[in-house]
From TrEMBL:
InterPro entries (UniProt xref): Kinase-like_dom_sf (IPR011009), Prot_kinase_dom (IPR000719), RTK (IPR050122), Ser-Thr/Tyr_kinase_cat_dom (IPR001245), Tyr_kinase_AS (IPR008266), Tyr_kinase_cat_dom (IPR020635), WIF (IPR003306), WIF_sf (IPR038677)
Localization per Swiss-Prot or TrEMBL: Cell membrane
Naturally occurring in which organism (per UniProt): Cephus cinctus
EC number: 2.7.10.1
Protein name per its UniProtKB record: receptor protein-tyrosine kinase
Xref: PANTHER family: TYROSINE-PROTEIN KINASE RECEPTOR, TYROSINE-PROTEIN KINASE RYK
Keywords on record: ATP-binding, Cell adhesion, Glycoprotein, Kinase, Membrane, Nucleotide-binding, Phosphoprotein, Receptor, Signal, Transferase, Transmembrane, Transmembrane helix, Tyrosine-protein kinase
Keyword match DNA damage: no
Transmembrane annotation, as ranges: 176-200
Residue stretches making up the WIF domain: 22-150
Signal peptide annotation: 1-18
Lineage of the organism: Eukaryota, Metazoa, Ecdysozoa, Arthropoda, Hexapoda
Coiled coil ranges: none
Gene, per the UniProt record: LOC107270467
GO cellular component: plasma membrane; receptor complex
Length: 554
């Protein structure tokens, strides 16, 4: 199953007239991406467009990039090359072949681009441009893009990217740790394969009665009305405010919700809170039509108030946006699991914007948390170890497993829809307001439906089907987000091309310093056929195994 994934390096090239090959050797691919494959950028004169687009991160410990080319033309081919560096004071480079010359006939030639980091920590983009003249009027141009990570003092405190593989508590014993993991690796991979193989058989037997093959049809209008007027924090609670959203009464969401409207109506009544009992303290996050506040809620009869998070729509939000907020906000209502954050209360009074209340126990949005880990250069960075990543993933997996047992499909698992506290306790939330707060994560494919395309399983993109197996796919992307500290997935790929990109066998690449075992788990989640993907119960077994191995050697 895993081999399928590696195929993508070898696809997308057609045999052509045959002028030259340009590729990375297996040793080079292993060094940069941790995979066992050669990576052809140009095969017989034809450029592998997918591979070219990919910005390869160059880890801090790698100082030389090797390229291999092969002249197939039977005569010397003239080339020119140049290197472009985004920040020349942080990085310089040198080639061990001349910038203009000829690709020699006969045999392979390997050459190297050496990278010399400057005196400070940086992430530097570089582009290597090569022109090869096939004839006087036919030139092939290849553009390689790399992101070099420079760490000033590699022996000292490791940067956030590096920390990912270090065991907690170890700052210098990285080599030893690697060796230990190496031994554990094969064993765990074998276990995972066995579990998955067993499971596929088991699942096939009962797939035909999986009641979760539902499509709850929670779509949202794509065209978010962009407004500018954003009222002061208090306005929506004040009774003097004119009722801008008075039309957002129960009737509007009844129409849009597919659940029996009576049931939803009852839910809302059960948890309706009085507006005057909520006090807003500070803005936590802000989007175009929605906001998230920290606040406090004083329950009737209670002696003290509790901290809450308040999700609300702005006054200029449209009815459909409000309806969506409520519908999505109530998705997890009534559930109880340590790894889920269900809504605590709701208000849809006619006067003022509707809002949703969540218990607030010192957590933060996980995507923001990860980004902050990545960007923290001034203070000691909050290092995430592989062990911590696995622990966080395990909690999230247990939350989703519980959802699936309750016959619910989340449909939008992602770091943005999780929260995490200082003790790295993870809870999964609903996706109310996520489109508004993380607009870059959602795309419309010309159908007026704003969807998290890059987190979706292929069948969800193509057929809009959502099942427990599509949640598994998204969980794989969530794992990838955890190990990359919330990089944007497939940043190079046009959302419109995602379906064919995935169909061609391409997947997210193994993040720098992501252990093979963890990447294997992700890879299983991205099996083309839903039947081949593991369930959350199996994912938990795999992650637990890996976690045991990690802690055994600490
Ligand atoms: C240049 O060479 C390529 C590779 O064989 C060929 O497909 C293409 O048609 C040529 N273009 C021109 C303008 O001659
Ligand atoms: C490659 O060719 C293009 C135009 O064909 C030119 O603009 C560019 O400067 C060339 N690059 C190098 C490295 O020679
Ligand atoms: C460039 O350096 C690499 C080692 O870093 C070596 O393998 C290769 O043969 C060199 N190429 C040339 C053309 O000198």
């Amino acid at each position: 199953m895993l081999f399928k994934l590696f195929l993508w390096f070898l696809l997308a090239v057609r045999p052509g007239a045959g002028y030259f090959n340009l590729f990375l050797s297996q040793a080079e691919v292993r060094k940069l991406m941790g995979l066992e494959a050669e990576l052809f950028y140009v095969r017989e004169g034809v450029i592998n467009q997918y591979a070219i687009k990919f910005v390869v991160p160059v880890p801090a410990q790698v100082h030389k990039l090797h390229f291999t080319w092969e002249n197939l033309a039977g005569r010397p081919l003239p080339y020119t090359m140049s290197v472009d560096i985004s920040n020349p004071s942080a990085l310089s480079s040198s080639l061990n072949i001349s910038q203009a010359g000829e690709i020699p006939v006969g045999g392979l030639q390997t050459w190297a681009l050496a990278l010399h980091c400057g005196p400070y920590d940086a992430e530097v983009d570089l582009a290597l441009r090569i022109n090869v003249s096939l004839s006087s009027r036919n030139t092939t141009s290849v553009d390689f893009r790399r992101k070099k990570i420079c760490l000033k003092d590699k022996s000292g405190y490791p940067g956030p990217e590096e920390v990912l593989v270090a065991a907690s508590g170890s700052t210098s014993g990285g080599q030893v740790f690697y060796a230990a993991i190496g031994c554990a690796c094969a064993f765990i991979a074998a276990i995972c394969v066995l579990v998955v193989a067993y499971y596929v058989r088991d699942k096939k037997a009962r797939r035909h009665r999986d009641p979760l093959q539902e499509s709850r049809g929670l779509s949202s209008a794509c065209s978010v009305e962009r407004g500018t007027g954003v009222g002061p924090a208090q306005t929506f609670l004040s009774p003097e405010t004119p009722p801008p959203l008075s039309a957002a009464s129960t009737s509007s969401y009844r129409r849009l919700d597919d659940r029996p409207s009576r049931e939803l109506h009852e839910r809302i009544q059960e948890i309706t809170v009085q507006r005057c009992r909520v006090r807003l303290l500070s803005i936590e996050m802000e989007g175009t039509f929605g906001k998230v506040y920290r606040g406090s809620y004083h329950e009737e009869g209670a002696t003290s108030s509790t901290d809450v998070l308040v999700k609300t729509a702005a006054e200029h939000a449209s009815q459909s946006q409000v309806a969506l907020l409520l519908r999505e906000g109530l998705a997890l209502y009534g559930l109880s699991h340590p790894a889920l954050l269900p809504v605590l209360g709701v208000s849809i009074e006619d006067r003022g914007a509707p809002f949703l209340l969540y218990p607030h126990t010192g957590y933060r949005n996980m995507k923001r948390f990860l980004l902050r880990c990545k960007l923290s250069s001034e203070r000691p960075p909050r290092a995430l170890t592989t062990q911590e990543v696995v622990e966080m993933a395990l909690q999230a997996a247990k939350g989703v497993q519980y959802l699936h047992r309750k016959r619910l499909v989340h449909r939008d698992l992602a770091a943005r829809n999780c929260v995490v506290d200082d003790d790295l306790r993870v809870q999964i939330t609903d996706n109310a307001l996520a489109r508004d707060l993380f607009p870059q994560d959602y795309h419309c494919l010309g159908d007026n439906e704003n969807r998290p395309i890059k987190w979706l399983a292929i069948e969800s993109i193509v057929n809009k089907t959502f099942t427990t197996a599509s949640d598994v796919w998204a969980f794989g992307v969530l794992l990838w987000e955890l190990t990359t500290l919330a990089q944007q997935p497939y940043v190079e790929v046009d959302p419109f091309e995602m379906a064919s990109y995935l169909r061609d066998g391409y997947r997210l690449a193994q993040p720098i310093n992501c252990p093979d075992e963890l990447f294997a788990v992700m890879a299983y989640c991205w099996a083309m056929s839903a039947d081949e993907r593991p369930t959350f119960s199996q994912l938990i077994v795999c992650l637990q195994e890996f976690h045991t191995q990690l802690t055994r050697y600490v």
